[in-house]
Design brief:
With 195 residues, this protein is of the alpha+beta class. It is 21% helix and 25% strand. The protein has three helices and six strands, in the order E-E-E-E-E-E-H-H-H. Strand 3 and strand 4 (49-51) form a beta hairpin. Helix 1 (107-115) runs antiparallel to helix 2. The longest helix has 26 residues, at 122-147. The chain starts with 12 loop residues before the first strand and ends in a 12-residue tail after the last helix.
Length: 195
């Protein structure tokens, strides 16, 4: 169901983020993202001159390669278009500090600490946050596809028997939700279900 009809309006800022997850032939995994910002009007800037409506203000890419245990092996970051063409592209080197980081609970915070605000790019870091989530979903799809049963869903989020880190992260994974009772009954805190 789409949103309700809006009041009359005109577009000012349009951001598109497209992300995809892949399994590589060598056993590693990759997520790749593209962030593109445009404006709904012409913009005249001292650094780039006239940027016509619909032309990118930001056009950026990121690829993260990681192992099945979610450890980042490599990062590639490209800034094709940015507001400050002589400065913004230099804010990509700090993303190499992500190598060795685990993509799991608290990833966005730990990633921001590793890349630093002054040495990175706000927009690339936003893309990184989304890619962390896509990485988890990519591995989750793999485990669901391979195991083909809800009983093996714990593999998606940690060691069998250990409390999954995903618990309490959303409404469906609240420990009193019946879904948790089905997936991880040992951690279910809601009312007992009658058989």
């Amino acid at each position: 169901m789409p949103l309700s009809s809006p009041a009359p309006r005109k577009p000012f800022h349009i951001r598109g983020i497209n992300c995809q997850g892949y399994q590589r032939e060598d056993g590693l995994w990759e997520v790749e993202g593209h962030l593109k910002d445009t404006r709904g009007f012409d913009v005249n800037t001292p650094w780039r001159g006239l940027i016509p409506q619909g032309e990118p203000v930001h056009d950026m890419w990121m690829r993260i390669t990681f192992s099945e245990d979610r450890i980042i092996q490599a990062v590639e970051v490209v800034t094709d278009v940015a507001p400050y063409p002589d400065s913004c592209p230099h804010g990509v080197a700090s993303y190499q500090n992500l190598v060795g980081l685990n993509i799991g609970a608290g990833f966005a915070k730990r990633a921001r600490e590793r890349v630093g605000a002054r040495t990175s790019c706000t927009h690339q870091t936003e893309l990184l946050r989304v890619l962390g989530s896509v990485a988890i979903q990519t591995l989750g799809v793999n485990y669901t596809h391979v195991n083909k049963s809800l009983g093996n869903a714990t593999a998606m989020y940690g060691d069998r028997g250990a409390r999954p880190a995903i618990l309490e992260s959303c409404h469906s994974y609240a420990t009193d939700n019946p879904i948790v009772n089905e997936l991880w009954p040992a951690f279910y805190t809601g009312p007992k279900q009658e058989a």
